[in-house]
Design a protein that fits this description.
The chain has 2 domains: about 260 residues, TIM Barrel; about 90 residues, no CATH class. By secondary structure, the protein is of the alpha/beta class. Strands 3-10-9-8-7-6-5-4 form an 8-stranded parallel β-sheet. It has a two-stranded antiparallel sheet with strand order 1-2. Bound molecules: flavin mononucleotide.
Length: about 350
């Protein structure tokens, strides 16, 4: 089973940080969906956090770092290019509940790379190594020690797949786990994931320290993809981001597949609506109505995706257009709950959907 230094994970499945999506409410939903043995998601991660923001106590950073006792184990991800500030940010994260601290070496966004953070660190390996050393020295000793990990892309560009040389250096500098997203920074999210490239990083890390886990990441959207990622790359675990946005039960499914060979049935329409309700209620509980409405509007398309396929409690796909629209245009939390319940009672209740489905039937 996967271990990150002193931290034992219950499964080899990790929820990827996805800025703007993986808040406490979402992590809670993903954690709650488990297989019969109570297992599913092994480790969840916050979105990338600015150490300066945490140290100054800005509301945005503190909100992003929000966690609680159920949200364990939790990885807090920091970004930046200044070793001393990263070390101070890591101390803050350790003192505010982090089980693991990750250093972002993959974000391709200009705002982050301009200040030598994210994937820019792939181009300045000495700085990347210094940051890991400083963060490890800051948080990896003493009774409240937390392990430090790094999340990399394969390189900045195809011509320089530096992760295979950088990752072993980071391990020697004290990183206890390496995650590799199998794309370059220049690719952003285009093209498909380069599994042979991930394998090279796995082999390079194992040559330095066979006990350091390497996590494969990218384009895992089905439980079977977890098996193929492990088979093709030799990685120890798999991180899933976008695949979980419409199927937060993917960790349960992938765990069950790995341990029993069975993929559990897809949740029913009712259960999917319960998950949506739960996510929305948790956003109201942890944040406020304004936040919850903003986020449910952005998320309802992802959350309704599985509804448009045949499900265990409805043999034909149900229309989702009117339902999504009524959630998107909701003006209050009550409006959202009422849209969910109306849809639960009668998926054809939104008139445009009824007209469309009648036309299709004809
Ligand atoms: C909108 C968006 C935001 C992301 N934010 C982060 C982030 O904050 N930190 C990070 O390390 N990766 C971030 N990623 C990259 C993901 O963690 C992951 O590496 C990538 O999406 C590939 O995995 P997937 O195919 O399972 O989604 C983000 C990706 C997307 C699409």
């Amino acid at each position: 089973m996967l271990r990150i230094g002193p931290v034992q994970l219950r499964t080899n499945l990790l929820l990827a940080p996805i800025a703007g999506y993986c808040d406490l409410a979402w992590r809670t939903v993903c954690r709650e969906l488990t297989w019969e043995d109570g297992r599913g998601l092994g480790l969840a991660c916050t979105d990338l956090l600015s150490p300066q923001g945490l140290l100054r106590g800005t509301a945005t950073s503190l909100d992003l770092a929000q966690t609680n006792e159920f949200d364990r184990p939790i990885c807090m991800q920091l970004y930046g290019g200044d070793a001393a500030i990263m070390a101070d940010g890591a101390r803050w994260a350790r003192d505010h509940g982090a089980t693991v601290i990750d250093i972002n070496m993959g974000c391709p966004v200009d705002k982050v790379t301009k200040k030598d953070g994210g994937s820019k660190l792939l181009c300045i390996p000495d700085t990347a190594e210094r940051i890991v050393e400083a963060v490890v020295n800051a948080v990896s000793t003493g009774p409240s020690a937390v392990p430090v990990t790094c999340k990399l892309r394969l390189g900045w560009s195809n011509c320089e797949p530096v992760a295979r040389t950088l990752a072993p250096r980071l391990v020697r500098a004290g990183a206890r786990l390496i995650t590799v997203h199998g794309r370059t920074a220049e690719q952003k999210f285009q093209g498909s994931v380069d599994r042979p490239g991930i394998r090279e990083v796995v082999e390079a890390v194992k040559a330095v320290d066979p006990s350091t886990p390497v996590i494969g990441n990218g384009d895992v959207t089905e439980p079977q993809h977890v098996l193929t990622m492990i088979r093709d790359t030799g990685c120890d675990g798999v991180m899933i981001g976008r695949g979980a946005l419409s199927r937060p039960w993917i960790f349960r499914d992938a765990w069950s597949l790995q341990t029993t060979g069975i993929i559990p049935p897809t949740p029913s329409r009712d259960q999917i609506l319960d998950i949506t309700r739960r996510y929305f209620s948790l956003m109201l509980e942890y944040r406020d109505e304004h936040y919850a409405l903003h986020h449910i509007r952005r998320r309802i398309s992802w959350l309704s995706k599985p509804l448009s396929a045949p499900l265990p409690d409805s043999d034909r796909p149900t229309p989702v257009k009117g339902y999504k629209e009524s959630v998107r245009t909701a003006q209050s939390a009550d409006d959202v709950f009422s849209a969910i319940e109306r849809y639960r009672e009668d998926p054809w209740c939104f008139s445009a959907d009824r007209v469309t489905s009648l036309a299709e039937a004809e």
